[in-house]
Amino acid sequence: MMAELKDRPVLSESEAQQNIKSSLDVLNKLLSAYPDLQTTLAKALRFVLEVTHRSGGMILIQGPDDAEPLFWIIEGAPDDWVTQAKKKESMLRMFCRTWIQPGGLVVTAGPFSPVVIFPLPMATGQQGILLINGEEPSRMESEFLIPASESLAHSVCLGRNGAMLFEISKLLDTLGMIIYGLDPRNSFDEAMYNLVKGLRESFTCEAVSLVMLDKNRGGMLVKKTLTEAPDWIYQVSVRVEDGLIGECFQTRKSILSNEPQNDERFNPAIDAVPGVEIHSLLCVPIQTEDDIVGVLAFQNKRPGTFSLYDQQLLTTVARSVVNSLVALQTIQQYRVLNAQLEASRWELIRSRNTLRSLFDNLPEAMYIIDRSYRLIAVNRVRAGRTKDEPSILVGKICYEALFGRSEPCLGCLVAETFYRRKVTNRMERQWEGVLEPLEWEINSYPIIDESDEVNQVILVEKDVTDKRRLEGFLTQSEKMAAVGELAAGIAHEINNPLTVILANAQILERELPPNEDWRELVDLISRAGTRALHAVKGLLNFTRKEQFEFVPTDVNETIERSLEMVRHELVTRGINLVYEPGENLPLLRASPNHVQGVWLNLVMNAMDAMDKEEKTIRIISYQQANDVCVSVIDNGQGIAPEKLKRIFEPFFTTKERDRGTGLGLSVCHRVIKQHGGLILVDSQIGEGTTFNVVLPAY
Known about the structure:
Blueprint: H1 13-33, H2 37-52, E1 57-61, E2 71-75, H3 79-86, H4 91-97, E3 105-107, E4 115-119, E5 128-133, H5 139-181, H6 188-202, E6 205-214, E7 220-226, E8 233-237, H7 243-251, E9 255-257, H8 268-271, E10 281-287, E11 292-301, H9 308-361, E12 365-370, E13 375-378, H10 380-384, H11 390-393, H12 398-401, H13 414-420, E14 424-430, E15 438-448, E16 454-463, H14 465-511, H15 516-543, E17 551-553, H16 555-573, E18 575-580, E19 588-590, H17 592-608, E20 615-624, E21 627-634, H18 641-644, H19 664-674, E22 678-684, E23 688-696
Parallel strand pairs: 18-20
Antiparallel strand pairs: 1-2, 1-5, 3-4, 4-5, 6-7, 6-11, 7-8, 9-10, 10-11, 12-13, 12-16, 14-15, 15-16, 17-19, 20-21, 21-23, 22-23
Helix pairs in contact: 1-2, 1-5, 2-5, 5-6, 14-15, 16-17, 17-19
């Protein structure tokens, strides 16, 4: 067949045309025989070379809009052609971007042997070029190669369209999955992650960004980018109008830039992505009819660059997902709002329960009434006095339900609170027994509503019977103190005459004759004086101040004696005692019994402070300069800072009720002060307490 296409005089014109037509038919059958485009073109190239009797050829597939070749087919051609195909600014790549006349182009200059270049033309644009080596083709070869190039171009176009249709089908499947993945049950961030990831994989981009306007933060742009890494890359900008992305926001039109570095609109601060060098950028607005929701920015198409077709397709995709996106965003906002409302509701419930618990558990009786004296609320303490539940009392008239009266209580001051907004106070005495009455202090407080009116009043009834009793005891104690001082003064005045009486009675007893009657009278005087003297000594002992007898004292001995008294208690409570006595400590000038009482008190306090499984008390004695120091350390619950400064006050205690009088540490402080020493404390909540006692050496 190669000989048949030569200009041989033996063939007529009609025979030559018939041979060309036959060769084209075979070529077209080859082009339709294989579904794979590269395999098809390889078979077709071999056939073209056989028909034209050429030794080598090449098909380079690259259109004017393609940044890189899709592929190339080579058969028996020089290696330089492949090198040329790989270089972006090579001669072959230039011919792909340049229009070539259908009759072909003969190139004789260059690093390789002469070559004939035929375009692969289509109405929509050139698909690539066909190269065959050798001199300029004959007329009959040209008549074959021109339609053959068109057939090759048609096959390339069909193959590319088929691949594009496959990509479109794949994209539609992905888009369907993405829209299906915009499930309201998912979080908004999860849905956006699935959307951006699906678009990046479908369009084979290096990165895809979702840029949205945060109206809650003053119109700030929030950009979330997904690359091949699994996590978002976050960026924030306050200038909505900057960059290609900002222009897309402003104009609400898609923007395509395949050379963004040379585009004056490009702003790396807005358009770029950390760690990604931008070669191509396509921005598509996500918008409804009324407003723009955001922008999808696609970076670096692989392979090649973005086309107008990509721009149209992605614009369609953005229109398809916007409704689902807006709906999901609205659902997310409602979710957040609902969560806030739910949190507010639970906060109100907790506040109500807290107030109700506080109202019910206050030791004072409390109740609330309206202007009709109707009970609005009653706490359990007040309801307990009537033996009824609070819910039964609510709605009833207060003086009827609480006091069993048919009219307001005598002396009631609630009206003053309602009409004058005054806080009132009054006393009421109730006789429940014959011997002693109950005394109540009743206070009323106005409750002002939103209209600045007092429509409710809260009443607090406090039982002050014990207070009055204690006041009586205090008055009695003051009287006893005065009597004690008086007795002390009188005792000294009586003691001297009694001494004279007893001395003279003893003298008379020795001088009297042995007359029993007189001796009995004198003995009676002596015994009466002795009894009076003992009574005076009792009064003196009652009023005498505590005396300290200071003697040389070993501090370790006083500690050991104190521990002997509590060792059984330590074992019973499961407390580990660590005692580290110092060696060769100097003696103290101290009152042993008083110092021993201090150690005992500190150890007992430490035992009461234990609330852990591993309980440890550590006692250390040591010398510091001219002082002897003792540290009592526990790992108990510790003392709160606000209570720490008051622990040495008389009658102040951190213990539970009925477990301490509040006098122990006060006495310890007084004893150490009498010895000229110091007692210091350091405590941490949950870690324990340390008492350091510093006493001067003898």
